[in-house]
């Protein structure tokens, strides 16, 4: 492969939207940020220089970082932040990876404004497994706040309530005509009748999952999380934050203007948000200009069935896939949202959540606390005191196991512990991970993302996981990096721990991450050089 160089200047930029303007953090003054293009097996080198007062890191979402964990980017997991005035050069190779990815800031809530697409083409001469589209377009779904997002995170975490809803959903940074002052702040694709378009959908939103649909047009999914899928044709798709998808759309309708709409999917009960959709236009060339657009039909915000239908449609293109048939290590991990005890009740203060917060989000009843230096650095250099290796491989409390299956004991709010607990895996371990949604406050669909790997989604269902009832697909399960664990349900994923390093696994809803919904896998080195994590780069930021 060849080498692609990019220069990212982290800047404070004045942006006007929704009848307001604010200073926000961008890359090179752009919102969304610049697109990074590469080909499979290329090396990508991005020099990131921080010209803002905010601590920053950049994560290359979906890139497996084979033997390059130092460049993964999550703050305090693989690196210390790039501080004001400093720079850090990310350098990694797209080893056997191609498709639609994105990059985003991985610290506080800066991701709300610091994101962009990463498009990796197949090697020269290697065709797509579908008819070459006439054109391709990137559509990044996002959320926009009028407030400063770093302050917003602190205010939200302290409040103990649900996250403050975004002021607008956006498509490529544009709210579209459903919002104030946004009639012209709208993204538009001009299409030629009869042609087929490739849309690279990327969900870069913070705290809400989304449906996407185009009025009167069918969408054919051919790629999910940068892996080809069997073509699946549908009226709408659902993406959680952290997921990407390619859909093909043929302009086969009468000349006109059709809306492309992004609207919320929110399975948690009682969460308030603006039930307004962000609209972009799919505009036929030759149609009457300024005609009214036909509205897209989105499912209602709590339509769990619509979500399941999309999920059922995601199958790996090839079958059978190379999924581990034998398992060395089975992990049962619960995902929970709970209210913590507070030392002062009114107003609630000094509570037992992460950073003294009211809410606790946890895996196996442990809320993840970010350490003061990166877990990777502490692990690599053998510095004690920053993390422990005792992440429980099964839930601590709330659960009995009846005949090997979990039996949830509701309403126990005493048992969430805080800690930087990691789980250590020997090189090459074949892991099956059962993710079980639970929680005493509410259940919710959680987009769980694993760094450093893709995993096969071999089974999922509603309610509690009972192995005897689970229907495992070992033929053509999708190979993903972010799985929306069904609300109140479960998902089973498999991967082989063959990439040494320190890998974050967390909910990609940032509010849940702020409340501690994550853990870290430490994957040990194997034998040869090709199984060993290299030394850290010389310019690795210091805390
Ligand atoms: Cu896209 Cu750890 O995240």
Automatic annotation (TrEMBL):
GO cellular component: apoplast
Highest taxon listed in the record's lineage: Eukaryota
Cofactor(s) the protein requires to work: Cu cation
GO molecular function: copper ion binding; hydroquinone:oxygen oxidoreductase activity
Pfam families: Cu-oxidase, Cu-oxidase_2, Cu-oxidase_3
Compartmental location: Secreted, Extracellular space, Apoplast
Keywords: Apoplast, Copper, Glycoprotein, Lignin degradation, Metal-binding, Oxidoreductase, Repeat, Secreted
GO BP term, example: lignin catabolic process
Top enzyme class: oxidoreductase
Cofactor notes: Binds 4 Cu cations per monomer.
Catalytic activity of the protein: 4 hydroquinone + O2 = 4 benzosemiquinone + 2 H2O
E.C. no: 1.10.3.2
Domain Plastocyanin-like: 10-124, 135-286, 409-526
Functional note: Lignin degradation and detoxification of lignin-derived products.
Protein family according to the UniProt entry: Belongs to the multicopper oxidase family.
NCBIfam families assigned: laccase (TIGR03389)
Name of the protein: Laccase
Organism: Rubus argutus (Southern blackberry)
